[in-house]
Amino acid sequence: MSFLAQSNQLTEPIAQVLAHPPPAWAEVTQPWVHSVAYTSLVRRLQARQAVGAIIYPAAIWRALECVAPADVRLVIVGQDPYHQPNQAQGLAFSVGYDQPLPPSLRNILAEVVRSTGGISNTAAIGDLSGWAQQGALLLNTSLTVERDQPRAHADWGWQVLTQAILAHVAALPGRRVFMLWGAHAQSLEPCIHPHTQRHLILRANHPSPLSARRPPQPFMGCHHFFQASQFMTKAQPDAPAWVW
User: Fold this and answer.
1) Are 225 and 244 in contact (CB under 8 A)?
2) What is the DSSP string of the chain?
């Protein structure tokens, strides 16, 4: 395998990486680091590393590193990172600028065009870090995965943290947009309670080609990006206009 193909592979000891989440999120991450769920997760991931499992991404904490809790304007919930070489970069649905667009991301960007009538160069190349820099928390429920094994680390303990993150963000002052695409993301809506009336909750099918056009809530044509832009402008009229 080439160096390029492995460039998003986690090579550091997993316990060392997990022990140092971004300081801005300490109110949420520190209780988790001292939990039974954390200890169990570290042990299982260490065991996989010990037998040579290829774990993605290298930048496990990137979604939290890009935006502090108080600066979150938009939350997009994914399931787990991409499981092919050089794809996952620590932001839900996002890939590096030089990578082919995965089908779900292709549909997301097509809906951006449909909703807004235009698309930024950042989004057009599949790298959604520009969204994160504006205040998007692009959060996967599981923050790690293994090569060729989707959901390899589902229910290993990540969900305890990511659910706590969603609850923490929802409880902060201010109004935010939560995009919940597909049954898995929508199952996490209770984390946002009892603050749902203050926020904009946008629900649709997952953008995967298998479900993007199916009823009862097709993703294609949902106009979520237009609705999100309108809401964020009203919620923070002095903030810069959102650029998709």
Assistant:
1) yes
2) --HHHHTTS--S-HHHHHT---GGGHHHHHHHHTSHHHHHHHHHHHHHHHTT--EE-S-TTHHHHS--GGG--EEEEESS---STTT--SSTT---TTSPPPHHHHHHHHHHHHHHS---HHHHTT-THHHHHHTEEEEESSS-EETTBTTTTTTSSHHHHHHHHHHHHHHSSS--EEEEEHHHHHTTGGGTTT-TTTSEEEEE--SSTTTTT-SSS-STT--HHHHHHHHHHHH-TTSPPP--
Question: How many angstroms separate the first and last alpha carbons of the chain?
Answer: 34
Q: What is the pLDDT of residues 179-202, one digit of tens each?
A: 999 999 999 999 999 999 999 999
Average pLDDT over residues 124-128: 89
The residues annotated as belonging to the active site are 80
pLDDT band at 115 (very low <50, low <70, confident <90, very high): very high
Rounded distance between C-alpha atoms, residue 115 and residue 118, angstroms: 8
CA angle 217, 202, 161 (to 5 degrees): 115
State yes or no: cis peptide before 150, omega within 30 of 0. Answer: no
Residue whose structure tokens are 């909703």: 115
What does the block give as tokens for 172?
């902060």
pLDDT of residue 15: 96
Does the structure show a pLDDT above 80 at 7? Answer: no
Nearest Cα to Cα of residue 133 among 29, 63, 59: 63
